Amino acid sequence: MDSDILQYLAAAAVVVGTFFSIVGVLGFIRLPDVYTRLHATGKVGVFGVVFLLIAAVIHTPLGWGKGLFLVFFLLVTGAVTAHALASAAYHLGLPMKGEMEGDRGVDPAGPEERGAADPRPYNRKP
């Protein structure tokens, strides 16, 4: 009886983890720039992998201690890695799609009032 419930929980975790992984991959393909793609891949790294890891812990003799350590490690390193990649992309000048006024130092008054030639100092064209 308990084994059946654990099997159903593992199957549900596999389905949810696979769903988040598929959504993350579709987001990576469909989203327009590196910043939004990082958001999509973050969902794979956090929700997809964590649910698949929970399923592995339930279904295999891995043990909850090791599983929780791996979940904690994934949660901490995933956020730090995404932030480092986004910061590097920002400093390299990779443009955002649909940039809004006020982003990246753009003066809302416009470049004419400031006398600047390029209102986006970090936005270099490749």
Automatic annotation (TrEMBL):
Query: TM segments?
Result: 6-29, 41-62, 68-90
* The UniProt record lists the keyword Membrane: yes
Looking at the keywords, is Disulfide bond present? no
Region of interest (Disordered), residue spans: 101-126
Q: Which Pfam families match?
A: PhaG_MnhG_YufB
Q: Which NCBIfam families match?
A: CPA3_mnhG_phaG
Return the protein name: Monovalent cation/proton antiporter, MnhG/PhaG subunit
- Identify the species of origin: Desulfococcus multivorans DSM 2059
